[in-house]
From TrEMBL:
Ranges where the SET domain occurs: 113-280
Sequence ranges of Polar residues compositional bias: 1-11, 20-32
TM annotation in the entry: none
Protein name: SET domain-containing protein
InterPro entries given in the database record: SET_dom, SET_dom_sf, SET_domain_protein
Signal peptide from the UniProt entry: none
Top-level taxon in the UniProt lineage: Eukaryota
SUPFAM superfamilies, A to Z: SET domain (SSF82199)
Gene3D superfamilies associated with the record: SET domain
SMART domains: SET
Length: 466
């Protein structure tokens, strides 16, 4: 393996401010250490060879890790994209291609943001829409702040490489990158029987990368005997604030010729709605997906889909109907309403009283109606369980039950509408719409779904006085 070198990628002089500058690693860096010349231990080679050869995304069926490591030579660089800065640690061949690419990059301008970063409760921070985003609408685009190989020769310690990379970022990018979420896990790297028993815990910078980076492809010369993998790791500052959802409303794409990631809407996103992506492939069953998220990303998903009460999941025909009934915990112990058949015994305000009275808790009616739904669901014989929309027209008790459920579902949707809670309003309107049989009713509900603020009582509820 040859030593690492340092350069700067520089865009053509006619376009000042966009460049790739290679920087020398620190004096005490181990990149040029004699260790670098050592071949990786055979068991490690065997594991890595299997992982790369058998993974079709790498398209490298004759990959040989020992030769790969021996033939690597990396360059550490800072990248000035003009509107943002980054740092890269790349195989020399890839680095050279990138240098050429960056010279030719068209000038890109930042567009007015349609989003903000704010608290997303138990998920930490999240990204929220600040204006309406149509389906397939542009949300943002950005260049990476860190670019690194997907697979590094064992001779270059990951922790050292990431330290070099992060610490070569300009101050503002460094400050933002180091404020990103970490998962504080001991080790989320995939384990295998033949892997060394205990890998050291990830460094702070590695943790940031493990928690936030995504896999992207770079243009790699594949006509060399021990060429670099096309897949690389990239860190993006905006994308890193997007939380996962099992029913995401946005998706990112990567353009290796412009080195730009773009986030677009999968469906209409209303102002105030959280912008979410999926961290994994959503083709499997929900339990398997949750397990995969836990194994790969280290968290228990608390997205809207994963916290839906079971009757909601059943009524939407969602793949998440396999969730255990205990998720209805959210509605147990809630208040009930004397105005509803199934909610006698408690003194609750009407909807009109509630939305005009700021001294009442925001959730008082929502909880009451959810509680009522929960009790109806519990009281129905198991054999009659048909879900909210799957009722039998010939059975009087069932259809009465269904009407009651519709009433509660619509009341919950109205409350969320009055609170201006886009995500929950949509969730409950979807269910309410399903049980309406009249076409004209469905049209009205569809209108509210695509533009929640057209709901007549949208945001009418006065804020609670605490
Ligand atoms: C890429 S970051 C997303 C932004 C992050 N919430 C923040 O505060 O910067 C990934 C981390 O966010 C949290 N997270 C993202 N989606 C989540 C979800 N659906 N349920 C629970 N936690 C989630 C997890 O802690 C995860 O490790």
């Amino acid at each position: 393996m040859s030593a690492t070198t340092q350069t700067t990628f520089t865009k053509k002089p006619s376009r000042p401010g966009v460049s790739l500058v290679t920087t020398p690693p620190k004096q005490d860096s181990s990149f040029n250490d004699n260790e670098c010349l050592k071949a990786p231990p055979t068991p490690i080679c065997a594991v890595v060879n299997d992982q790369i050869r058998l993974n079709p995304t790498h398209a490298y069926p004759d990959f040989d890790f020992a030769s790969y490591v021996r033939h690597r030579s990396y360059t550490l660089s800072t990248i000035d994209f003009g509107r943002s800065m980054g740092a890269s640690f790349l195989d020399d061949g890839v680095h050279d291609i990138l240098a050429g690419l960056i010279e030719e990059l068209p000038d890109s301008v930042s567009k007015a943001p349609s989003h903000e970063i704010r608290d997303a409760r138990e998920k930490g921070l999240g990204m929220f829409a600040t204006s309406f985003i149509p389906p397939r609408g542009f949300i943002f685009d950005e260049h990476p702040v860190i670019l690194a190989p997907y697979l590094l020769g064992v001779s270059v310690p990951l922790a050292e490489m990431y330290t070099e990379l992060f610490e070569s970022l300009p101050k503002s990018a460094f400050a933002y990158a180091t404020s990103l979420a970490t998962s504080h896990q001991d080790d989320v790297r995939p384990k295998s029987a033949s892997a060394p028993p205990s890998l050291p815990p990830p460094s702070f910078y590695e943790d940031i990368m493990q928690t936030n980076s995504v896999a992207i492809d770079l243009l790699v010369p594949t006509n060399t005997p021990y060429h670099e993998l096309t897949t690389h790791r990239a860190l993006f500052l905006l994308l890193s604030r997007c939380n996962h959802s099992c029913d995401p409303n946005a998706v990112w794409s990567w353009d290796s010729s412009t080195l730009m990631l773009t986030l677009t809407a999968l469906r209409p996103i209303a102002p105030g709605e959280e912008i979410t992506i999926s961290y994994i492939s959503l083709s499997g069953n929900h339990a398997a997906q949750r397990a995969q998220l836990k194994a790969l990303c280290g968290f228990d998903c608390t997205c809207e889909e994963c916290t839906l009460p079971s009757y909601v999941a059943a009524s939407t025909g969602s793949v998440y109907a396999d969730k255990p009934v205990e998720i209805t915990r959210a509605v147990t112990g809630a208040h009930c309403s004397k105005r509803d058949d199934n909610t006698s015994g408690c003194d609750l305000p009407t909807f009109e009283e509630w939305y005009q009275d700021s001294t009442l808790p925001d959730t008082i009616l929502i909880n009451a109606h959810k509680n009522a739904l929960y009790r109806i669901e519990q009281e129905r014989p198991a054999s009659s369980y048909l879900g909210v929309s799957g009722r039998s027209p010939r059975s009087t008790p069932l259809s009465t039950t269904a009407q009651l459920m519709d009433h509660h579902v619509e009341a919950i949707a109205m409350c969320y509408g009055a609170l201006g809670d886009v995500t929950n309003f949509r969730k409950w309107i979807v269910i309410a719409k399903e049980s309406r049989t009249q076409h004209k009713d469905k049209v009205v509900f569809s209108g509210w779904l695509s533009n929640p603020s057209s709901f007549p009582l949208w945001g009418k509820r006065c804020p609670t006085i605490v």
